[in-house]
Amino acid sequence: MTAIEGNPQTARPRRSIGLFNNIKFFVLCHGMLQLSQLLVSGYLKGSITTIERRYGFSSQMMGLLAAFNEVGNTVLIVFVSFFGSRVHRPRCIGIGAMIASMGVFLIALPHFIDGKYDYTGINSNKKDNYSGICQLENISSEEESNQKCNQNKTGSGVYPIFLLGQLLLGIGGVPIQPFGISYIDDYAEKRSSPFYLGILFAVTVIGPAFGYMMSSAVLRFFVDIDKMSLGEINLENDDPRWVGAWWLGFLVAATLLLLTSLPYMFFPRKMSREEIEEAPAEPSTEKMVCRTDTTEEVSLTEFLKSFPKIVMRTLRNPIYLLVVLAQVNLAAMVAGLATFMGKFIEKQFAKTSSFSNMMIGGINIPSAMLGIMAGGVILRRFGLSVRSSALMCTIAVLVSVMFAIPLLFLGCPTQQVSEMNVHDFQQCSNACSCSEELFNPVCGSNRVEFRSPCHAGCKKEIRSADKVLNYTDCGCFESTDFPDFASPGPCNNGCNNRLIPFMILSSITCFVASLSHTTSFMMILRTVTPEDKSFALGIQFMLFRVLAFLPAPVLYGRAIDTACRVWGKKCKTMTSCHYYDLDMFRHRFLGLQIFFICGGFVCFFLSFMVLRRINSTQQRNEKMNNQIKSESSQEMKDVKQMVSKSNGHCNTQSVLRE
């Protein structure tokens, strides 16, 4: 049977299918598939800074990469909504998952076609000079740099491969959720369908959390662990030049996607609805077949012609439009934070990528999940009306703004860096002819950080009996009162105590803002006509992609790049940022968060005001109608009385005549 053909009589589920004719098994398979798909999303965002450092990408480029899977998704979603009832949905899901798996394998490909990670950036003929100390002999750094650039490719060549992988991931993911949900809703027993869908919605939150946690574990391994022995690795996990094995998680996720796609090849196009005690299973199946076939009368041309009319009719609904715009603002906030929150924690509090991802996957995402669940419980417990739901969303988002504002002041000060804000040390290493590509941070005895021992003018390195490394004879300290030595690694900013209150406040913000998720979703379902309900949800998700998921990561990445003060260089090309103005980074990154939350608050507040106005208008109209009815009733009584009196008078006159 092909994906589009099929007769209702021949499409009946066969007895030989067995396990694959069970909707519960389909829910299990679909939950595993969605978990694998969303695992990729969380893992990619957890690996953003690692890939950025490995290939020298800017934050704006990484933002575009993170959002690029939405391109294929957005283009094809309209056709999916049309062909949904005409194709073999399980097989389409399986084929889509295989395409997504190919895309994830493609994302991991650059590691295998590129050379080893060069973290030294040293232009020296001495093979043992890994640290980049000052060398006074006459070395043409420009000549050696050009030779090195001819031998090694820069990261710009692999960027299109990443984009293509993300594009395939987005295309493959198009049928997974809509086809899976509609298939379950068609063949699950009505009372069980909400429970099954609730499981899938829970997976949409758990999946990214697993992705962050997996990146936290995998990034502890060195990127070239498959190309070199452990003894050859001269970096520690907390070194700012460390790059974890980012590719390993993508291989795991791609394999999981491929394995979870296989069962869909064996599910039938149509299966028997779950048995109901009050009614036999066979009639419900017949009803299902008739309902499914009626949708095939509409041609693709007619569907495309009616598409703009339905869109305009849906968008003319003021409540729908305001609630969707509020959700778009919150979705843009989530898209930006999910992409770059790990980088923010890493740079702001001087933490590793593994630690940052563990904080997000273990604290922030569970807080958001609890908020979504709590919002649903409140909605069900109190039976909120549409107006009360709008008020709840408005209050929840307003409270989240109040918790988000203090985050602007919870951060670390910008470290003292010789090339950024301490101008007295910018000329002291000129005799060393330090390469612009060098990046091996050291902390001077005066608590000033230098890009490398060479930039600090250090000519010697010594290792004590307990293998502690120090750099001595540093020319940049000769004219100062400080000892002429430097320690490897960045200077400690001494503000680790601010991380805990930051995580507490950010988690509360996530929890409170998430209270509006389920409530706003139900507002949309209650304010559109039944015939436009499915289409309204499709427009909602399309607007999410076009207005939030696509532009937000790029906007956040651009804002982060504007806070960079010292860019890395490779082959005379600007690469990833080495040093940020941390205050500017914090204010612009979290400022965008507050901006989008405020946008959501304004839209929810306007929806509440519109609903209150509609409610007052309805009450006024009802009052007028009741008054009119009352007056009409009184007039009718008066007329009846007049008629009765008139009849009595006429009867009296007739009696007198007689």
TrEMBL record:
UniProt GO molecular function: bile acid transmembrane transporter activity; sodium-independent organic anion transmembrane transporter activity
Taxonomic path: Eukaryota, Metazoa, Chordata, Craniata, Vertebrata
Transmembrane segments: 25-44, 64-85, 92-113, 161-184, 196-223, 243-267, 319-338, 358-379, 391-411, 499-525, 537-556, 589-611
Record-annotated Kazal-like domain positions: 422-493
Single GO cellular component term: apical plasma membrane
Gene Ontology BP, a term: sodium-independent organic anion transport
Membrane topology: Multi-pass membrane protein
Main location, first listed in the record: membrane
Keywords associated with the record: Cell membrane, Disulfide bond, Ion transport, Membrane, Transmembrane, Transmembrane helix, Transport
Organism: Culter alburnus (Topmouth culter)
Protein name: Solute carrier organic anion transporter family member
Annotated family: Belongs to the organo anion transporter (TC 2.A.60) family.
One family name in Pfam for this protein: Kazal_2
NCBIfam families recorded: oat
Annotated compartments: Cell membrane
Superkingdom of the organism of origin: Eukaryota
